[in-house]
Amino acid sequence: WFSVKRQHALMTIADSLYYTKFKLYCKPGMAGGRNCYADEHYMPTLFNMMDPNGIANWSVTHVDWSEGKWHPKAYRAQDVTHGLLKNITSIDVSHHVTSDSKKVVTQNPCLWNGVKKPCYLFARKFYPESMNNLMRYFCYRNMCTFGRTLDLLTSWWI
Questions:
Q1: What is d(CA 89, CA 123) in angstroms, rounded to the nearest whole number?
Q2: Segment 67-126, tens digit of pLDDT
Q3: pTM surpassing 0.70?
Q4: Residue 18, exposed/middle/buried by CB under 10 A (0-12, 13-18, 19+)?
Q5: Cβ–Cβ under 8 Å, residues 52 and 8
Q6: Phi–psi pair at 52, nearest 5 degrees
Q7: Is there a cis peptide before residue 125, judged by omega within 30 degrees of 0?
Q8: Which end of the chain is more exposed for a tag (fewer CB within 10 A), N or C?
Q9: Where are the domains of the chain?
Q10: Which H or E run contains 123?
């Protein structure tokens, strides 16, 4: 889920302090407020601590956590509409709620080189059955805007 520049790759390789703490402390489940996953939370935390100005302050992947479950909402074929895609691509404010009991909400504009832009380049999760509907929006006259990428992505779907 991560793409890093050389500087951050070297930072990750050199780190043993924070990784060890994450490995020991981060366990799935709600006991003791330790509901985290080392593989998902370690790198964003490390980069925010070590190089906060060198990272984006939001994810470039839209994920709908509104159902409050362990996994995000998964879109079925009937969910994939022009309205859904327009909504996702028009979001230009990053909305974050902390996972602790305080549920602190922060909202920040998504900025690219100081200019407010849409936040998301990608979206997840889509059931395989939704592929034809997605193709309808991303292909024109049998020409897909992302070539063979779709073939590669289907292995990442549910």
A1: 9
A2: 878 788 999 999 999 899 999 989 999 888 877 778 889 998 988 778 888 988 889 899
A3: no
A4: middle
A5: no
A6: -60, -25
A7: yes
A8: N
A9: 1-55, 62-158
A10: strand 122-124
Structure-token pair, residue 81: 């509409």
User: Is there a contact between 60 and 120 (Cβ–Cβ < 8 Å)?
Assistant: yes
Compute the distance between CA of residue 158 and CA of residue 152 in angstroms, rounded to an integer: 13
State whether the Cα torsion 9-11-16-19 is positive or negative. negative
Distance CA 139, CA 124 (A): 19
Which tokens sit at 86? 């327009």
Report helix, strand or coil for 22: helix
* Distance of alpha carbon 59 from alpha carbon 53, whole angstroms: 15
Tens-place pLDDT, residues 128-158:
999 988 888 877 666 665 544 444 444 444 4
